[in-house]
Specification:
Blueprint (H helix, E strand, L loop, with lengths): L7 H14 L19 H8 L11 H5 L8 H14 L4 E5 L19 H5 L10 E5 L27
Antiparallel strand pairs: 1-2
Amino acid sequence: MRLESESKENKQYAQWLLDVGNDVNESKVAIPENMRVSPDLKSLIDAVYYNISVKGICTNQYLKDRIILSLHNDDVDAINCTILNIFPGNKWTYLSSDNVVIKKGADNIGNIYPVEYLNSFNPASMPPSKLDLKIGCPIILLHNLLPYQGLCNDAASFPFI
């Protein structure tokens, strides 16, 4: 790890990261007081993404300076849903296409599983069956659709709706 300055705080933080990564405490990780933000999700979002409800605040630089990390996709979904509800503007909901296309000559056994059951899954590599969006809200694209028009994921910018 390279530090931009040799300050005491940077050295302590670097050592803490090494201790966590090397499993020094083995059972419990002591989170430094300055890293403890809030007891609930709403307070955490308000601390990290302060003024997110103000229209026009969400620029590329604003997003690059902030991040909430989570280990579980269910937690990420809850965080994203909460932030989207705070974000200004009308919410638009898009539903997946739930039709099965049978190839000509294939066995037509119909739908084996009900649509509701299939829609209950949310694999990380696929968009959800129900997608909520707001104009001006950043999104992450699964594929680079039109890079020359800015519809791609790169380190320099975030695509916006």
